[in-house]
Amino acid sequence: MKKIMLVLAAIVLACATARADYPTRQIRLIVPFAPGGGTDVLARILAQRLSEKWGRPVVVENQPGASGSIGSKAVERAAPDGYTLVMASTGALMSLATQYEKDGPFDVNAHFAPVTLVADPPYVITVNPKVPAKTVADLIALAKSQKSSLTFGSSGVGAASHLSGELFQKEAGIELLHVPYKGTGAAETDLIAGRIDIMFAPPQTVEPMVKVGKLKALATTGKTRSPLFPNLPTADESGLPGYEAVGWFGLLAPAHTPEDIVQKLNAASVEILKSDDVRERLANLGAEPHPMTPAEYSKFINADLKKWTAVMQTAEARQKTGEKK
Description:
12 helices, globular, five-stranded mixed β-sheet, single chain, 16% strand, alpha/beta, D-Maltodextrin-Binding Protein, domain 2
């Protein structure tokens, strides 16, 4: 018995030492989308700085598919040791929450260990230049006069760009026809060509086309103005009081990851996000760092998913009503 107790004590000591020395090897940071998107860009910024800080490689690995749920599930199933993380997003978590809805309301803590929010940038309400609207108020009036003939594109069902449009319809009391794409790029291409009318788009994606006049920006969707579009009003200022829709990005580890590892990841990430060079890089993407404690981030995710679940339920009910007519 004494020998067994000594062995167990040695194992506990070894585990504690390994955690104190974390990280001692390569960390995988899963991006559940294809390279080049907002989730991927932010993941690579954070991975680079964590690698530099710890002297251990933090390797970004893209695992796209199923609106982000494939990569997210891979991390959910990974060993809870801090060596497999995911750069999560609004759309990816909504996709996952939808798959678990039969089990009741989704609680992020049952599936992941939240580390920190990275950023929650607004979208830009962007239209084809031929759309005769200069403000959000104009767009709402146009939609009411044309009754469902205006179309809005998104990067996919359940993506933040889709959810933003659904919330816009709900709060404005209008109907738009949703056209889902397999990515932001394809939707933007059709917006420029005039095959769709509206897009709730990531600011860094549409900014070049807005500058040259191939697209028209009406407003941003956050509480405050975007650093990339400082002269552009918010939707609240431009005709839809109280409207707010942001697409967040943040770091998650598998559920049951030891608290000390989560706190070490949080402290390092927060330090990086507060650095001047990272703040500048995020500003060029139309975002600002918004670090949180793990507990704050957990509450933020659950409240956000509850909000968007209600929006999706309203959208689905409206669609079923339309099909019956």
